[in-house]
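hey so i finally got around to running the thing on that chain from the lab meeting. sorry it took forever, my laptop kept dying and i had to restart like 3 times. anyway pasting the input first so we r on the same page abt which one it is
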Amino acid sequence: MNATASQDPLDPRDRPARLTVGVVGAGRVGPALAASLQLAGHRPVAASGVSDQSVRRAAAMLPDVPLVPPADVLARAELVLLTVPDDALPGLVEGLVETGAVRPGQLLVHTSGRYGTKVLEPALRAGALPLALHPAMTFTGTAVDVQRLAGCSFGVTAPEELRLAAEALVIEMGGEPEWIEEQNRPLYHAALALGANHLVTLVAQSMELLRTAGVTAPDRMLGPLLGAALDNALRSGDAALTGPVARGDAGTVAAHVAELRKHAPAAVAGYLAMARTTADRALAHGMLKPELAEDLLGVLAEGDLR
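ok and heres what got predicted. didnt touch it at all, straight out
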C-alpha cells in the first residue's frame, strides 16, 4: 500500500490492493469508516454489534453486511476496525489474542484518540499490523458522517514501516493524516475533548439560558454569533477575545453571576471557571488592563465563596 494510491481515487490502477473490511463495535464511528472505505473500493464483509441501535445502524450504513461475533469478524476480514469505547479497547485486544482470533498479517486499526499503537502490542506479538487512526470529528451515526470525513483530520500513529499504509487509508476515506507520536496521544485527545466536547456543553447551556430569558429561537440567535466567534478564534487565537471579561467589566460579570445563581445555579461554577481562564489569558496577552483585572478577579473570587 502506498500514499500515492489516493491521488486519483477514480483510477483503480492507482489504488492499493482492495481489502476485506470488518468492524468490531458498530457504534457511530465504525460503520461510517467502513462505508467510506467501501466508497474507495474496499469490501466490508462483517460487523459486530450488540445493542438494537447498533444493529439498526449497521443495517442502514452497511446493508447486506452480516452481523457476527467479534472473532468471526476477524476470521473474515483483512482489515479490522476496532471501534469500541476507549476503556474497552485494551480488554478487547487481549481477549481477541487469547482466543486466537488475530491472524498474522492482519491490519488491526483502532480509532481511539487516547491510545497509540502500544495498546495493540498483544496483537502485534500475534503477527498483526497495528494502526491508530483517530478521526477528529464528532459522529451522528448516520450517512452524513461519511460526507463529513471529507477534509477531516485524522490523528495517525503507526510503526514507521506502516506509516505510508496508514496515511493511504486515511486519504482514501477523504481525510487528512496528521502524525501524532505515541507519547503525545493523551495530550492530543485532551485538546480535542476540551475544544469539541466542552463546546457542546457550553452551547447547550447557553441555549437553555436564552430560552429562560424568553428567546424563542436560541439556535438561530447563537448560530451567527458562535460561527463568527469560532472563525475569529481559529484565525486569531487569543486576539479574538471580546466581551466583559476581556474588557474588565467587573460590574457586568457580577450581574451575570447573580442572575445565574437565581435562574441556573448549576451553571455558576462553569461560568466562573471559564471567566477566570479568559481573564488570565486576556491579561497575559495585554488585552485586559491590570488595574481592571484586580476588580474583576475579586468578583470571581467572591462568586466562589457564595
